[in-house]
Here is the input.
Amino acid sequence: MHRYRSVGDSPTSINHQAGPPSLHYIANTLELLILSCELLCRSVGIGMNNSMTKDWNAAYEADDTPWDKGVAAPPLRAFLETHPIRGRVLVPGCGLGHDVRLLAQQGASVVGLDIVPKAVRKAQAVAAVGDERFEVADFLNLAEHYHGQFDTLVEHTCLCALDPAQRVAYVRAVLQALKPGGHYLAVFFREVKDYRKGGPPHPITADQIEALFGNDFDTLESSVPQQSYPCRPLGSEEVRWMRKRDSAAG
Ligand SMILES: C[S@@+](CC[C@H](N)C(=O)[O-])C[C@H]1O[C@@H](n2cnc3c(N)ncnc32)[C@H](O)[C@@H]1O
Here is the structure.
């Protein structure tokens, strides 16, 4: 898509006495409209391609799972060194379960949920390291038996994998899953290289985090992790440790 080179290229330069608008003017006007819509959508966290949810089943069936690095997330590992997490923990979109096993190894009682049966079967096939279990479930339509059950919910690469239009449903599920005063630990993708080519992963801005979580959570700590997978540029992630307010619904 080309950009205007000078004010004279812009639609505002039309001479209304010169007859009907030219094709060039119409094309420029359309480009301006598309750009405005894109900016508006981004400002409220909705992608232009918001009807394009990824086919996760197909990805696992084709063994096309580039997000799976074979080990737990380094920012999570680093956080746990100074903030041990115990009690009942939920990991939505757990994939093959590396983060779940890390948490279980450290003494938490962990449930990993994923919408894809093949991912859950592969996670279940790994020998247990502690008190962990894996279940097939749609986190965005969280079954009632999970409601109010968890002391902590650990987010890593589930939220960024969802279409931005699904974020409100995601936060509703987080609130449903947590006990009053429960904790939410997130590794957020604040920046995604070449995002203009489209997600997932979809990045999230500080303002979007505030808009989604600000009403119901207090942020206890926030940091930029110094350790990550080699493919993730340092500085592109944020670790947030939040607490669900006692007054929050769900
Ligand atoms: C980018 S992958 C990350 C997997 C894992 N957290 C990891 O880092 O390896 C996103 C995962 O979320 C799962 N997922 C997508 N939508 C979901 C939903 N509505 N409920 C539960 N899991 C979902 C996908 O099947 C996929 O395993």
Summary: Residues 8 and 14 are 9 Å apart (CA to CA). Confidence is low (pLDDT under 50) at residues 1-17, 23-51. DSSP finds seven helices and seven strands in the chain. Strands lie at 88-92, 109-114, 131-136, 150-156, 178-189, 217-223, 237-244.
